[in-house]
């Protein structure tokens, strides 16, 4: 992994998005991501929707079971759903982030260890049915449509932090 920026804590505003959400076994997660990216781009292009960075959001993580995942894109405003493409919002708040090239597992481990060293709690509910995140995503800062080699993608990993208590 080549670390480009961070880890750090950043405050992000609400951002409109549109995406396709599915439940898939862990082993099939990345193949689903790639297939859904192409489908999402095609559906939005057909409708003339302009969009920004693509993201891969993990809503529920159950490594032994199923993952609830979403492939989405940031949009300038709300997008009308079409049954398959759903409108949404990447929520505002404090996020632990880092930007890297190549190898997301190491990036994930680096960010989690960094946050623990600083006693930063994630917005996450851990339970036997899978960990449910307030917002955890990888934003592809390199456009996957122009660079198909995933090892060259510049990626921002962002995990929403729990609200601070007073």
Question: Could you please describe the fold and organization of this structure?
Answer:
InterPro entries: AraC_E-bd (IPR010499), GyrI-like (IPR029442), Reg_factor_effector_dom_sf (IPR011256). This is AraC effector-binding domain-containing protein. The protein is of the alpha+beta class. The chain is 20% helix and 45% strand. The protein contains two helices and ten strands, in the order E-E-H-E-E-E-E-H-E-E-E-E. Strands 1, 2, 3, 4, 5, 6, 7, 8, 9 and 10 form a ten-stranded antiparallel beta sheet that branches. Strand 7 and strand 8 form a beta hairpin. The termini are far apart.
Keywords:
166 residues; AraC effector-binding domain-containing protein; 2 helices; alpha+beta; 20% helix; single chain; AraC_E-bd; Reg_factor_effector_dom_sf; ten-stranded antiparallel β-sheet; GyrI-like
- The number of helical runs is 2
**Please, what is the oligomeric state?**
single chain
Biggest sheet record: 10 strands, antiparallel
Question: In terms of per-residue confidence, which ranges show pLDDT below 50 for 5 or more consecutive residues?
Answer: none
Compressed to H and E, one letter per element, the order equals EEHEEEEHEEEE
The percent range for strand residues is 35-45%
Q: Provide the helix percentage.
A: 10-25%
Overall radius of gyration: 16 Å
Shape: globular
Mean pLDDT, as a whole number?
A: 92
Q: What is the end-to-end distance?
A: 37 Å
Domain AraC effector-binding: 5-162
InterPro entries: AraC_E-bd, GyrI-like, Reg_factor_effector_dom_sf
Organism: Planobispora longispora
Protein name: AraC effector-binding domain-containing protein
């Amino acid at each position: 992994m080549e670390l480009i920026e961070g880890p750090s804590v950043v405050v992000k505003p609400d951002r409109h998005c549109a995406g396709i959400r599915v439940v898939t076994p862990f082993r099939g997660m990345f193949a689903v991501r790639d297939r859904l990216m192409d489908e999402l781009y095609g559906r939005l292009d057909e409708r003339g929707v302009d969009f920004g960075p693509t993201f891969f959001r993990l809503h529920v993580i159950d490594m032994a079971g199923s993952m609830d995942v979403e492939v989405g894109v940031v949009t300038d405003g709300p997008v009308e759903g079409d049954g398959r493409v759903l409108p949404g919002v990447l929520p505002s708040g404090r996020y632990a982030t880092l930007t890297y090239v190549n190898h997301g597992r190491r990036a994930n481990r680096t960010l989690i260890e960094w946050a623990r060293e600083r006693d930063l709690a994630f917005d996450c509910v851990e339970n036997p049915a899978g960990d449910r995140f307030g917002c955890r995503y990888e934003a592809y800062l390199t456009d996957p449509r122009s660079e198909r080699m995933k090892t060259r993608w510049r990626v921002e990993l962002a995990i929403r932090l729990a609200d601070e208590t007073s």
